[in-house]
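User: Is it possible to get a 3D structure for a protein together with its bound compound? The compound here is iron/sulfur cluster. I've pasted both below.
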Amino acid sequence: MAIIGKTPSPAPSCPSSAAYATSQKIHPRGVKGTFRSLKWWASVVLLAYWHLAPFIRWDRGPGAPSQAILADMAGRRAYFFFIEIWPQEIYYLTGMLFIAAISLFLMTSLAGRIWCGFLCWQTVYTDLFVAVERLVIGERNQRLAFDRAPMSPAKLGKKALVNLIWAGIAAACGIGFTLYFGDAFETLTEIFTGEASPATYGAIAVVGGMCFLLAGYAREQVCIYMCPYARFQSAMFDEHSLIISYEAWRGEARAPAPANRDFSDRGHCVDCLACVQACPTGIDIRNGNHLACIGCGLCIDACNQVMDRFGLPRGLVSYDSAANLAARGENRQTGFRILRPRTLVYGGILAVVSSVMLFRLTTRPDVDVNILHERAPLFVQMSDGSIRNGYVYKVLNMKAEDRTFTLNLSGLEGATIDVVGGESGATSAEMQVSRDSVGSFRLYVTAPAAKVASKSMPVTFVLSAPGREVRTETLFAGPEK
Ligand code: SF4
Ligand code: SF4
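Assistant: Yes, that's possible. Here is the predicted structure of the complex:
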């Protein structure tokens, strides 16, 4: 298998002894082909999702937000269609991030860097920004000549126009981000009427500014030097993972195209550099697999165009596994193995974690309880000798309806419950909690001294509502016996 993880070759103009090479702007050549189309389609779908998803509505009943995907910071809730995550349920977010990470590992071990080449935001926006340059300045050669040309009013004007369009796209990206944090229709109106909060404008500036700098100016430097994923992804590859490779056995010995188009006693590579010029990270895939290769497949499209021109079979640069590459070179049968130890491990972990998450979500309780035992003092001995403990009892009503709960105590004979501001002296208490909110109650439990057997007795609060019961264990403190 070819080596993955080499550092990028120095730019041709740099002396090989230089320890530091200034990066040179890469102007990828436009190509047509399957991978280019796939990349555009992926971008269209992702950008459409990014900008339109906040406008999807989801009916949660009166008074509840009707936005399907929403991170409601003020209300301290996150919504994703039928799923509603409370701050106490942050473990769902952890689970989702874990699923996303394992999915990425599985995707990489099966199909190589398709995340980097097709789905990553850096790739999507860089593609868009390069398309703007292409539209305003021209194709690769014109952009190279434009860079070399001395500054003039025409050059300044074109540069300004490119930056202006980039700024517009970046601002749209930033605005899209803010729409996930409030009602999308209202937020959009507020942004354009100047009534949005400083935090909203700040978020647009930060996210939009990052988009502008990373996709407009940093580009492939992000993939090569900043992104941590590129560093460890080689650990997910094996010889059956799909990668972009140059079929050296077929391409070498390379040489300029023969005038008579006779390739019978030479390699198929005509050394035209079309693959290098199409590459958004500026590498030569003929030198072997490379850390900087994001797996976008544009070099394949470029080379296929060249192969078509000379009537040669396509696939001199191919998207295939190292095992197939070697097999083809030796005229052995090729095939694609999906079930391998690493894909089985990733798939197994993914199935288990997803099942647990799904089970938890579908059987998620619609009420939860938090209890805090008062510490100062731990207990009070009343004038009649009885012992009193104080608690802060919180009820999380996660249902879209107002509810009345009944609270009882078990494990302490003769105990009464007094809710501050409510009933007192009864063996049970009623608690009303509005829909989709947290009810916080201060309460005292009083028990006859004779029934308090130790300085720390386990007791159980039992909260009931129709069809639901939540039992919570805590301690009741008393004097040393
Ligand atoms: S070598 Fe090919 S697949 Fe890799 S980044 Fe360059 S164009 Fe994309
Ligand atoms: S595009 Fe194909 S033929 Fe041209 S240099 Fe690259 S590999 Fe060789």
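The longest strand covers residues 387-397. Residues 153-178 form the longest helix (26 residues).
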